[in-house]
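Thread: quick sanity check before group meeting

JM: Hey all, I'm pulling together slides for Thursday and realized we never actually wrote out the predicted structure for the chain we discussed last week. Dropping the sequence here so it's in one place. If anyone has concerns about the input, flag it before I start.
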Amino acid sequence: MPRKILIAGTFCAGKTTLLSDLSKSLDAAQIIPDVARDILAINPGIDWSIPELRSHLLIQQLLWEARADKSNAKHILVDAGVVANLAHDRLYGIELRNSNYLIKSLKHSKYDLVFFCGHQTIELEDDGERNTSEKDRSRLANETLHVLDLLGYTDIITLHGNQVERVAMAISVIHNRECQGTNNHTNRLF
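JM (edit): ok, ran it. Output follows.
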């Protein structure tokens, strides 16, 4: 049964919208937000390549997920997750020597189900806070898929279409997995 569900993808791909819709449709769901949103709200122009900031974001993400793992939630819905942190590090060319150590030390648990939100049908939104480069968006999507591969996730469900279609497909997959009780992934990093 999928308990810890990652919603992965690049920016402006519909991850947070899907997460919100799923939380309303699933019993006892707990949301783990994208921790970068707090910093983005304070300083939209921040230099995301600062190594200390990258470490802070990874640690915050790991702590949020560790707390959720100890909860009684039936479903833990993770917006971007540790995967996004590692993908951004790769995008910015940052090699955090302590990433693997932090992930192991803070006992990160694997995601039971991974949804990847395709971004091709979602228009970039220029709200003054987000990156509006289509090139960066595509590069981050590729880095996210690469990190998922490095982590050993082989059963990634890619979601396309409009909001209603994505939610319907995700709920269908979750319910099918609950009936089957399957989790198909290994993890080479942890």
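AS: nice. The first strand starts at residue 4 and ends at 9. The chain has seven helices and five strands.
JM: adding both to the slides.
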